[in-house]
Amino acid sequence: MAETASEQGRAQAAVLPVAGRRNVLVTSALPYVNNVPHLGNLVGCVLSADAYARYCRLRGHNVLFVCGTDEYGTATEARALQEGCSPREICDRYHALHREVYRWFGISFDHFGRTSSPEQTVICQDIFQKLLENNWLSEKTIQQLYCGTCQRSLADRLVEGSCPVEGCGYGSARGDQCEKCGELLNSTELIDPKCKVCGSTPCVRDTDHLFLELPLLKEKLEEFIDGASVDGYWSQNAVHVTNAWLKGGLKPRCITRDLKWGVPVPHEKYKDKVFYVWFDAPIGYISITACYTPEWEKWWKNPENVELYQFMGKDNVPFHTVMFPSTLLGTGENWTLLKTISVTEYLNYESGKFSKTKGIGIFGNDAKDTNIPPEVWRYYLLTNRPEVSDAQFTWTDLQAKLNNELVNKLGNFVNRVLSFIAKPEGAGYGSIIPPATNAESYTQTRAISETVGKLIDQYIDAMDKVKLKQGLKIAMAICSEGNAYLQETQFWKLYKQDPPGCATVMKTSVGLVYLLACLLEPFMPSFSTEVLQQLNLCPEEHLSFCDEKGERDKAKRPWDLIPSGHRIGKPAPLFKGLDDNTVKGFKEKFAGSQAERRLRAEVATRLENTTI
Known about the structure:
Elements: H1 5-12, E1 23-28, H2 39-44, H3 46-58, E2 62-69, H4 74-83, H5 87-104, E3 111-114, H6 118-133, E4 137-147, E5 152-153, E6 159-162, E7 173-174, E8 191-195, E9 203-212, H7 218-231, H8 236-247, E10 253-254, E11 256-257, E12 274-275, H9 277-292, H10 297-300, E13 306-313, H11 317-331, E14 338-344, E15 347-349, E16 352-353, H12 364-369, H13 374-383, E17 391-393, H14 395-422, H15 443-464, H16 468-489, H17 491-497, H18 499-519, H19 525-534, H20 539-542, H21 551-554, H22 580-589, H23 594-611
Helix pairs in contact: 4-5, 6-9, 6-11, 7-11, 8-11, 9-11, 14-16, 14-18, 15-16, 16-18, 17-18, 18-19
């Protein structure tokens, strides 16, 4: 999928805040670079952020949407060791893979960067120096695991063991966090730890590190949280996690690590160490913006005129509501801080969990290989978005939503309306939009305009509050109302019996088709582009739903949305269904881990060659 013209336009001139407009800075949690993202990563971060950024643009707001690959830290070093190459080679390879996956999914970043940039080093070290000058840092001697076989200190992700949290006991907990219960850990707390490189049992050694004194910053942090969580829209899970951290008592957090791959610590005593990834990765939002424009401070040091919206999975919450704000507050500078945080629960795969580490689930490149179009994946993931509880991906559910909701409901409505208008005169309107005379005098037309008007208000309210799943559901409800309107009016009979009435129904219905193309654009942009092409309208000019232009009020009179006499394009089916045999094949193909799939494919190839 090539860049759209609007994306190319954004790439040519940097988007900067504009006085008097609503300026929205949207970030997606930076995906780690050591593997291809799976569907759970996509819906929790970049896809949700993209839907909201697109909605804001649709509404006429001034939007900057940034993201990039999180490249420093233990996981990259571990992957490089595993593959026998340098961390930079790992980052270059997977950054390109991430970029390709997001391009295929139609993610409309204004800039997709990476954290291993010179800008990251400069900004990260500058923030560190200000924290040091303001006395928010301390030095402590801590115990750290050391592998005698590898002869190296084991950073958090180079060690694995059983989770020490009571009631959990997960056997593959990392040295920084338990993937199962979400608890942040120190590697020395793990039960029966093992070096992930060689499998040996490490010993404990003393080492000096720098810490951010979160307890001393608590008053500033609580003042920020009390304001932002009221002024913005915080997901309930974000509120719960943040409050739990505050009630549990803030502790100093280590900001340095014994690694080589990372931002060097600009301190003589610690010059052989790098910053811990939780400290430097959120700063990546800032440095990625700095790579996009030298005027990055107009976004990041402009809280009076910029609203920061951040999207992520629930395991990233404390880094964004506690640690990152504390870091910025500690500098004493006027940073743009988080206003709204949208957090998803987990998306599970069939009967288990998605896992990048274990290679379980559907990954971005897998989705592309199915030949199921990106708009179908986007629709399914966003309609199944785990906003308040974990959700489950199943192939059967994907099939049902595609066949019942996209093919039979949405696609059928659009095609039914446009195909009838496209019929030659005597059977239709020769592809010309007919006039709607005294549209409000028709009871059913007046009724649907009132219903649609209320649904539009509900849609905007939901989307403004970042309730994306609800917004999508409301947009699809307009489609249902359109289908019911066609059935109730029996337009095919009106064509001969009441020509003005039929013309009104068709002009109203084609207005609803256009309206759906607008409201569904944040969720399925390629669908909207295709519908506008079939309407013979230019997407760059007509995909807009802006209050200042009166488009919200006009949409409540759907018969006025497309002028009489306008010639539509050629109608064509918009979606193709999935049959049971295809679904069965996908279930078998994507069962087990990536390693198991590769083994099955190799065995199948050998058998095929033997047979030949």
